[in-house]
Amino acid sequence: MKKLINAPEDVLVESLKGVALAHPELSVDLENHVITRATPKTQGKVAIVSGGGSGHEPLHGGFVGTGMLDAAVAGEVFTSPTPDRVQVATKAVDRGAGVLHIVKNYTGDVLNFEMAAELASMEGIEVGSVTVDDDVAVQDSLYTAGRRGVGLTVLLEKIVGAAAEEGRDLAAVVELAKKVNGQGRSMGMALTSCTVPAAGKPTFDLPDDQMEIGIGIHGEPGRHREPLAPASEIARQLVEPILGDIDAAGPAIVMLNGMGATPLIELYLMYGEVAAILEKSGVQIARNLVGNYITSLDMAGCSVTVLKADDELLRLWDAPVNTPGLRWGA
Amino acid sequence: MKKLINAPEDVLVESLKGVALAHPELSVDLENHVITRATPKTQGKVAIVSGGGSGHEPLHGGFVGTGMLDAAVAGEVFTSPTPDRVQVATKAVDRGAGVLHIVKNYTGDVLNFEMAAELASMEGIEVGSVTVDDDVAVQDSLYTAGRRGVGLTVLLEKIVGAAAEEGRDLAAVVELAKKVNGQGRSMGMALTSCTVPAAGKPTFDLPDDQMEIGIGIHGEPGRHREPLAPASEIARQLVEPILGDIDAAGPAIVMLNGMGATPLIELYLMYGEVAAILEKSGVQIARNLVGNYITSLDMAGCSVTVLKADDELLRLWDAPVNTPGLRWGA
How confident is the model at residue A330, as a pLDDT? Predict the structure, then answer.
């Protein structure tokens, strides 16, 4: 295993220490592994909390800041954070208007966020919740009942964060979150495995001439393996299942996401291929993101997310955001 | 070779096509491989052009935009762009106040930018130039007489871009660029080789238990190889040669840069280690960047850049910038 780390068991806390030093605009609770804004939002606005296993950076900690998340709870690598820590985050950011939990659909995350919501409500904090399940690759998976939550989470956190900043109430924010989840789909692929530090070896073996289509962000099996294909063919295999699952004709926000170890020169090339297929299918790409936004440690590969977008979603997308991982208009 | 590409010979142009589709705020000349702002800066301001071999993205094309570059010239992967293309870029962005060429110190780049400057001056365009040579690892290298130009280029493009936006004249912009180059130093390391698409195999072999200290951004040999060490020891080996070469006590801008295939969780961990050593040595980190800014295709590893910064440099650093790769305050 070749990684820039000290002891595998210290990776998360030492990385959080680096985040704290690099970003004075964030506040990092090293005991509970919770990242919040150093300057909380004003009283009376809905707060947004997300979290999950680490190893997907910049998601979620890199999306804390004005216009996006109020707090992120970082579990150990690929491991759900415990309910008490989610509750700590929830309590820390509540401004009296309730808190939205954004939960990727993995069994551990779903259970632990549910339990945290109960703990919080016992303390008088109103909690709403959305479960993101955008991955069209497989119906159930290693850690999942139902579809996995992947790239759409990034887009949802941005859009819902903007709505909360505008002052919408919790019911309206929850409704918006569910609308976004209903209108977005993702599909990913891997060229290589990732290596979890504590495991010390690749999560799976993928021969030098093979790729895996439909991979999960923890290296969970996808749809199938096949010989490495040209980018144009890979783009087709990512876009077709998405368009087969949702009518995405019309304006859309599209993300071409890197899995962590794939350089930008390849991600832009893939974006060109994906955009060509989408436009030919009647999808008008109104906004886009190209880069590493929801990663899988050192996995090489990419994913495509398509979110059908009306004027409301585009306006919220364009609203100012100021986080380490996403920043514009502020 | 596992890459998201079609034919190796098409990588550059196909990636530029993706850039053009993703960034309507940029204008991409697919014939000359030149990226400019879609909306040029106002007449009477100095323009800034940089460029070099591709494979270091987001450098340079990702730094075109308000507050930074006016144009980037993209050579083939790890190959200098030809003088006529640098001239095309220079001519395209000149607003009557002259053009600064920012050139990383590689023999091909230096020669081709010099020739382009002569061609431009024959057409009545005044060209100034700065050669960046911040890499303390080796004195001469595979493609270099003198030190290599690496990470400092990113910081220099930002600071000089801000000065040009303010309306400083060419002589003042050149002077500032030379000041920045004199006050910054970098040092890098690799965990793995990179693979040039046209070569189809890794540039060098690095055994599974070894790392290379002092690596160049094209996989050029560094100072030495040794067994893989903990992050704290790697940080020491990157920071000490920098501090041995320049008195960096006082305020500084520090970049912890990823080589392309190293995930953010490791980069933040490394930043924590590097920051601790620097602060202990009297360097006050006033600003920082952590992420992939000047990469080496799919190489795993990182580099450290330290730029001694006075109030003027910090003010220019904080000025608004709006590019795909660097964006704040705009």
Answer: 64
Q: pLDDT tens digit string along B133-154? A: 999 998 877 777 899 999 999 9
For residue B229, the chain A residues in CB contact (below 8 A) are none
Q: Which domains does chain A have, with CATH numbers?
A: 11-183 (3.40.50.10440), 184-320 (3.30.1180.20)
Nearest CA distance, A265 vs chain B (angstrom): 6
CA atoms within 13 A on the CB side of B142: 11
Q: Give the residue ranges of chain B where pLDDT is below 70.
A: 330
Of B270, B297, B329, the CB nearest to A4: B270
Rounded Cα distance between A234 and A34, Å, is: 37
Reported ipTM = 0.98
- pTM (whole model) above 0.90: yes
Residues in B touching A25 (Cβ below 8 Å): none
Q: Say whether B55 and A265 touch across the interface (CB within 8 A).
A: yes
**Structural tokens at position A34:** 């919770």
Closest CA of chain A from B319, distance in Å? 13
State yes or no: pLDDT of A43 exceeds 70.
yes
- Tell me the backbone φ, ψ of residue A37, rounded to 5 degrees: -70, 140
As a whole number of angstroms, the longest Cα–Cα distance in chain A is 56
Q: Which of B288, B298, B302 sits opposite A261 (nearest CB)?
A: B298
Sign for the CA dihedral angle at A301, A62, A320, B62 comes to negative
Q: For residue A23, indicate whether it is catalytic.
A: no
Kindly list the catalytic residues of B: 56, 218
